[in-house]
Fold DUF3800 domain-containing protein.
Amino acid sequence: MNPVEIACDESGSEGENLVGGETDVFAHAGIRMTPDEARACVREIRRRIGSPAEEYKANHLLRAKHRPVLEWLLDPAGPLAGRGHVHLTDKTFFAVRAAVTLLAEPGTDAMARTLHRGGRAAFGARWDFFLAAFTSVLRLNPRRGLTTSPAEFFTLVGELAGTPGEAGEIMGRFRDGGERVAAYRARLAEDPSVVPVLDPLVPAVLRTIRHWSAGGTPVAVVHDEQLALTAERVLQLKATLGPRLAGVRFVDSRSDARVQVADFLAGVARRIASEELNARGDTTLTTLLQSFVDAESVWDGPFVSR
């Protein structure tokens, strides 16, 4: 069976910097279009916006004066209907889920949701400190912000574990995670193919490929240039996905209109989702976006239908 080419791009990528960064949502988009269809879509966007800019980005579509163009792009009868897919990641929830998986019990989303929803009320300002410390202790070379040693992190965990309520009980389960953290850090240092548990890119790419290959058709990914998708990690993607993944190649988004369209979708999805996350959501745009959103997005709330 001949593979189908899916063009991909992302928005909000800050690697393992999940808390305290520039963005609170990561979006990864995949587009199934022919090159001619994508070029026609880009031409129509340019015609409707009328800007002299040489390269259009999602920000052009997000300007208030171009709202009709954005609604046209996301409309159920628009050019992306049935051709676009977005995987969303709430970065804070992603970090909390990683903490539960690594320090307590893998696959316990219910526990992660309980801690995510109750952490701030239970721990106050120390909740933010816990999140920053957790993301720091898992990074071998933190680039900025708080630097925490494993000993300091587990001292904090022990203090928070005494807090009454469900969040405190979950924190208590984290106290025995020292060996797992040490083992993870050792693997990360020794094996370049290890996917950092704090980087949402690879899980999003996996979901994108599984979505487009659900009918049995293998997928060939055409992705915007992305340093985090190293040769070792691409090999791991192939090992994980088997015949579902026919290959991965990287292009400059300016050279492939399909990737430009994926850039548009990822960028507007991240902004719309971030507004929804922060209780500033636009009902019309949220509704239009929902038809593109992966049900397995890393999201804790009603925005993502399951």
